[in-house]
Amino acid sequence: MNTFLLSIVVFASLSIVVVILRLFLRKQLSRYTLSGWWRLSSLIVLHVGVALILTNLGRLNVAIDRYDWPSAPGKVVSARLADSVNFVAVLDYSYMVGNHQYSGTTDLGAPGFGSKSKRFQAAETLINLHRAGDSLTVYYNPDKLSESVVIRNLPWFVYMQLFFGATVFMLGFGLLLLPKRPRAAS
User: Fold this and answer.
1) Across-strand partners of 74?
2) pLDDT at residue 21, rounded to an integer
3) What is the largest CA-CA distance in the chain?
4) Contact present, 73 and 135 (Cβ < 8 Å)
5) Are 80 and 137 within one domain?
6) Contact 81, 63 (CB under 8 A)
7) N or C: which end of the chain has fewer CB within 10 A?
8) Which residues is 137 bridged to in the sheet?
9) pLDDT tens digits, 121-134
C-alpha cells in the first residue's frame, strides 16, 4: 500500500514539473497573465490536496484492516510519563501468541493539544487507569505477530488531515475554475 501512495505522490510531483518545464521550454510564460500564474498555483495546491487525501486514506485503510486482527490477552508492563514538556502517557505491554511473548508500546491515542495542565491531567488519568500487571486486550497483525495495537481506532489527527486535504483540494479545484483574465492589448 505504501508503494502505491508513493507512486501517486511521485506522479503528481512529476506532472507539476512537466507543466512548469513545458511553459519554460516553449517560452509561453510571457503569454500568461497573472491568472495564468494562479492556474499554475492552483495545480500545485490541487496536487498537495490529493497527496494529503491519498496518504490519509492509506492510514484509514490500515485502521480498517486492524478491525480484522485477532485479539490476545495482554498485561501492562509499565505506565509512565514519557515527555515532561508535552506530557504523553506511554503504556508498555506484553502479550502471548502461541508460545511466543511479544511486547509493544502505545500512547493510547491521547491528543497532544490543549493547555499544559490539561495534557498533564489527561496523561495522569491514563497512567492511573493502567497499572503494571493490569490485563488488557491487544490486537495483533496475524502476518507480523510483533505488530500490535491496543486501540484500533485512528488517531484524531488523521481525520483533521483528511479534512484539510479535502479543503485544499477543493480550493485548488476552485482556482482552476476561475475565468482567465483577458490579456491587455499591446
Assistant:
1) 95, 136
2) 62
3) 83
4) yes
5) yes
6) no
7) C
8) 73
9) 888 888 888 888 88
Q: What is the pLDDT of residues 92-125, one digit of tens each?
A: 999 999 899 999 988 777 666 667 778 788 888 8
Whose CA is closest to 76, among 150, 138, 133, 148? 133
As a whole number of angstroms, the distance between CA 184 and CA 182 comes to 6
119 is a domain residue: yes
- Average of per-residue pLDDT across 31-47: 68
Tell whether the model's pLDDT for residue 162 goes beyond 60: yes
pTM: 0.64
The verdict on 61 and 75 lying in the same domain is: no
Q: Is residue 183 assigned to a domain?
A: no
Q: What is the 3-state secondary structure (H, E, C) of 109-123?
A: CCCCCCCHHHHHHHH
pLDDT confidence of residue 34: 46
Cα separation, 154 vs 66, in Å, equals: 10
**Inter-residue contact 69 to 44 (CB < 8 Å):** no
Distance CA 128, CA 126 (A): 5
Helices (H), the chain: 2-25, 34-66, 116-129, 156-177
Q: What span, in angstroms and rounded, lies between the C-alpha atoms of 107 and 178?
A: 45
